Amino acid sequence: ATPTALMVGTGRGAQLGILIKGPEVLEQTRTVDTIVLDKTGTVTTGEMTLADTHVAAGEDPAFVLRMAGALEDASEHPIARAIADAAREAGALGQVEDFANIEGLGVQGIVDGHAVLVGRPQLLDQWSQYLDERLQAAFDEATGRGQTAVAVGWDGQARAVLVVADRVKDTSAEAIRRMRDLGLRPILLTGDNERVAHTVAGQVGIDAADVYAEVLPADKVDVVTRLQADGRVVAMVGDGVNDAAALAQADLGLAMGTGTDVAIEASDITLVRGDLRVAGDAIRLSRRTLGVIK
Ligand code: ADP
Ligand code: MG
């Protein structure tokens, strides 16, 4: 493409809410054949609310929220915001000491003198805090519906399961159809539970074989590297929460403009409005500018 065509292409992109870092980015769109999609905040809205509170026999839901909410108040995770907001509405939060975020697993700390954990059941398992039959059933039921569930425990015992509702964006299924039309193979990547990931994949038309779930933040980049080692040319769309390294590793990184500054920094293209349909549009526009397609 001529320099003028490139400028027209990037100018047209800006009108559509597609910010392209430089003309060299267009070239990367030519051979891309795979598009990795981060789940939370990319395929789903990432705006979570507390949907259900399940407690073990003898536990008080208000006390569970006081404990869990206090810890989550110190975390930036969308799950944490949902729990802290609901807890604040229900009453006062406990006093936190020794807060720690355990990336990809949850949070821990001392609340009102109790050692509290909130996160994946695997995190509680590490402290021999196991969900009883009822809590396990509540967990399985929620995750089977595609909802995210986290466990709450303190003083050596699992006490509750909190169900957080995120939802698939109305535009995600269409966005993924458009990607397929461009010859791209969509892949879902998430730290969330296998069942949630497969339910969401089914809702948006991603093949079960192309779901990578329960991937720790530090391992997301390895998924991209492995696909590249298999000869795939990889685009990745993310919001920068836990996926900035993977965005940077991808042959073409696309940041949701609604995401973090880190994402925008690590990416080649920013989708200003956070509309996933525009990801395919950006690749189509770039290819058209290069004269690869009409
Ligand atoms: P995603 O890839 O969907 O953005 P993350 O890697 O951020 O997910 O988190 C993976 C999982 O770890 C979450 O689904 C949740 O079960 C647990 N988790 C992470 N942070 C928290 C937190 N602050 N509170 C509770 N659970 C958490
Ligand atoms: Mg994320």
Automatic annotation (TrEMBL):
Q: Where in the cell is it found?
A: Cell membrane
Stretch forming the signal peptide: none
Q: Which family, according to UniProt?
A: Belongs to the cation transport ATPase (P-type) (TC 3.A.3) family. Type IB subfamily.
The protein's name is Cation-transporting P-type ATPase B
Which part of the entire protein is covered? 425 to 718 of 770
